[in-house]
Design a protein that fits this description.
Bound molecules: 3-methyl-2-oxobutanoic acid
Number of helices: 11
Largest sheet: 8 strands, parallel, barrel
Distance between the termini: 70 Å
Number of domains: 1
CATH superfamily: Phosphoenolpyruvate-binding domains
Number of strands: 8
CATH class: Alpha Beta
């Protein structure tokens, strides 16, 4: 899956993007047919156990991108640019984005923001680094937003998000994540843009959908956002399986003979 094919998917069959953070999950989601694997900075919350994504570093992102790249055959890999990796100067952003591609094996990068990140997007695109943009609820601005809150509920805020979307398209972004905005606004933005939109908590009117893999598989036991559909309950099933293991070890039922190596039989001495 390439950037031109993703761009070309505008208005066609919806794009499927799923987050992945390691080689095993990448292999699983790639085999399931995801078009795009996003190595999201959400790993700060679901893998590292933080309350938000702000503490994730560029080194963390390179490490996880590299693992995902090793497990992926077909899907396009997007590496998320973490907080402060693109905010200081466009030059620094270029170095960090370049590292996600050169060292991490990502094929494009994603960054949050609208009109304010236009110079950064232009710099990266000019250097041949494809950029997926991200507007609406932008988790790296959690404190400015006063929490993880749905954005674009007033006409004024909706207009600001539409302007952001048009600005990042104009700057050269090849696709746009719309997060945490009302469905009708997402549909309006999708209609207004030439690049595909990929929604999360933004309704069905986008050109694609993305979910955090831990959410869709039911691994995040304590979080139940309205926009998440759980396609399994892997946390509960994991607890149940590990509990049986605990019981079998304590009862000396594991390991059985079939899990145990024997010793080689000595050849009989002759004479
Ligand atoms: O970091 C992430 O997982 C994301 C998605 C929620 C779009 O940015």
């Amino acid at each position: 899956m390439t950037v031109p094919r993703i761009r070309g998917a505008k208005g066609g069959e919806p794009l499927v993007m799923i987050t992945a953070y390691d080689a095993t999950f990448a292999r699983m989601l790639d085999e399931a047919g995801a078009d795009i694997l996003l190595v999201g900075d959400s790993l700060g919350m679901v893998v590292q156990g933080r309350d938000d994504t702000l503490g994730v570093t560029i080194e963390d992102m390179i490490y996880h991108c590299r693992a995902v790249a090793r497990g992926t055959k077909t899907a396009h890999i997007v590496g998320d640019m973490p907080f402060l990796s693109y905010h200081v100067t466009p030059q620094e952003a270029l170095r960090n984005a370049g590292r996600l591609l050169a060292e991490g094996g990502a094929q494009s990068v994603k960054l949050e923001g609208g009109t304010t990140v236009v110079p950064v997007i232009e710099r990266l695109v000019a250097a041949g680094i494809p950029v997926m943009a991200h507007v609406g609820l932008t988790p790296q601005s959690v404190h400015a937003m006063g929490g993880f809150r749905v954005q674009g509920k007033t006409e004024q805020d909706a207009t600001r998000i539409l302007d952001d979307a048009l600005a990042v398209q104009e700057a050269g972004a090849y696709a746009l994540v719309l997060e945490g905005i009302p469905g009708p606004l997402a549909a309006r933005i999708t209609e207004a843009l030439e690049i595909p939109t990929i929604g999360i908590g933004a309704g069905v009117g986008c050109d694609g959908q993305v979910l955090v893999c831990y959410d869709l598989l039911g691994l995040t036991a304590d979080l139940h956002p309205k926009f998440v559909k759980r396609y399994d309950q892997l946390f509960d099933r994991g607890v149940a399986a590990a509990r049986v293991f605990c019981e079998e070890v304590r009862a000396r039922n594991f390991p059985g003979p079939e899990h145990t190596f024997g010793v080689a039989k000595r050849p009989r001495a002759v004479g």
